[in-house]
Amino acid sequence: MNEAAISAFFCTFAQKFRKMRKTLTLLTLLLCLTAITSQAKKRKQAPAVNWPAVRSQLVSDVSYDLTFYIPSAPTEKLTGMAVVTFALRDEADMALDFGGQFTGPTVVNDKKRKLRFENGHLLIPKKYTEAGANRVVVSFESTDDALHRSDGLLTTKFSEGRPSSCFPCFDQPDIPAKFVTHLNLPDGWKAMSSESQRPISLQLYSFLAGRFDEKIVALSGHTVRALYRQSDIADASQLPKILEESAHSLRWMEGFTGVAYPFNECGLLLLTGPASQGIDNPGIIRLTDSRVFTPKKPTSEESLKQSELIAYETARLWFGNMVTPREAKDAWGIDLLAAYMAHKMAYQSKRARTEYEMEFLTTTLARAKSAEGTDADRGAVMMRYLEGIAGEKLQPTLQQFLLKYFYKPASWNDFISMLEKQLPGENVSQFNDTWVKQSGLPTIHTSYQDGYLVISQTPPAGTPAFWPQQFDVRLIYDFEKSRTIDVNMSQPVTRIKLKNQPSCIIPNFSGRGYGHFTLDDNYTKQLPLRIMVTRDDLNRYALLETTFDNYKMGRVPASYFGELYRDMLSEKTPTVMQLAVDHMMEIATDRKVLSERQTLEQCIMDLLPENRRPECRQTIIRKMATSASAPQVVNQLYDIWQSHSDPLFAESDYTEMAYRLALMRPLETKDILSRQRERLQTDAEREEFDFVSRACASDAKSRQDLINNLRKPQSKPKAWVDHSLRLLNVK
Asked: Which SS3 state, helix, strand or coil, does residue 666 take?
């Protein structure tokens, strides 16, 4: 091969080699990219770690030492530092949940570490953890997802979920922890938190801070620390009584349940009005209902309601905090147990038996029978019957329930199952199914048939339900001889042998029964005639209820008004007075002819010079302040409102009069409302007045626009909205 040929061969080979090298390079690059892509896909396809399940198996002995820096402006971010200590069963990868941002280095077991923060998890590799005690320190900036903030106020909403939006934590209810809280506050702010010597779930931890006044008292073995705003309190002299009632409720709950108050501080928040909206801090007695303050001369009912409100919020520390609802749908059952406790401590423990029974009829039973009755209302009545069935076994069952589910979630069915084991022969589950799950009211008819008293129960249309219950029937014979029969209605029809036919039958004599109680016509017409000769207050009250129920069913004529009038001439019992006046006014408003209604209204007012008891005057004027339509009655109401000097009435009564007068005297609406607003003493009173008084607008379009607006979600208290709607729908 000559030199030229050799040279040509190497030139060709070099060209081919260069092409081959490019191809190999590209091939290598493609292989590398394929490998990288494959690894990336593998990482993407790797299943996400189920951190709650992992932590449930590995984590214990958790504590949070939390420091928060609270800004005065609600627009500024909350910042803080968390020291989280926990024990691990073995060395393992671990993660803290957090929805905010980290603002400084992370320290794990006393060494600074650079950790990944992905998808709301601060990831701690296994190589940084230890079997046994571990300690993580982080600085952070919170989000507002679990906070309720307004001017001068910050509270937490951890009971609704997402505490990890506020601070790094193991955000799951099955990992309880101990808490230590340090709150750095703006000048003039006060704070409290729910800390316990025992581990509690994150949903039970809370804190609040704001511009508050403070009062600390030692009562009944407890030191109660109250936060309140002097500007919201019209009558500060009631504060000691409220604190005393709270301390009494704490002591009563400890005695009845056998479980001591578990939180480190007995905190009480007294905050009414819009600022209280959305506040539900566990571990704190939370008084946000304005009825916790009574008028200067309260009725017995108003005083009882004050006691019940305080007792209920106290009982929720046990049934609601110590024992929490398993799910949202279980909240009513746990709440029912708190309401039952409140009713017992507020009424039965401090009042005479008759007052307690009457209060049960006027509140619990009345709500359960109403069209708006809820599962909780019916359950409260059932609890009353269960108390009669279980007797002495109910209290130890409640104590066992608390101990078994202490700081654990539970449901109403858990309580029923426990009670059924204590009462094996009573069929508690079936009892529960009817009383709680069935709506409507049965009709219970009593008649005399061939020597027997026959009592039959008919369920509401379309339901097969039967309500087992106990009540009594009064039998009256000639010469006013009488006897009372206790009826245990365990079957749809009950027959009781009688020696003689009674001349009068009064069903549900003590008011314990649940349903519409009816009689044959010849007995029904005698019911109104028995009111004045029934001396016992409880029996007279129950008779009024039964007679009026039959009036609403068309079985008793409107002339029943006359019997009510005659009773009111000498009635002494305030609770009976109130019921009788309510019935009289409803009969009046049922009149289709306006002049007839107005005549009956004047008849009610004519009782004032006849029955001079202060309770009678208070009851009638308060009823007219919401219902008066007769011009002469409106004029009388105007004179009382204008004088503003009757010691029987509080400012809230005069405000109610002003609303009615503004509606009945449209030409004077602006002047009446303006004058009443000037009388109000606190910012809270004026804010409520400004919201509610809009319902007194005289033109139809403004009223309809307001109705449409009120049907939308509101930031104001529900009580204000309901009050406005009542004014917009006055008869």
From this structure: helix
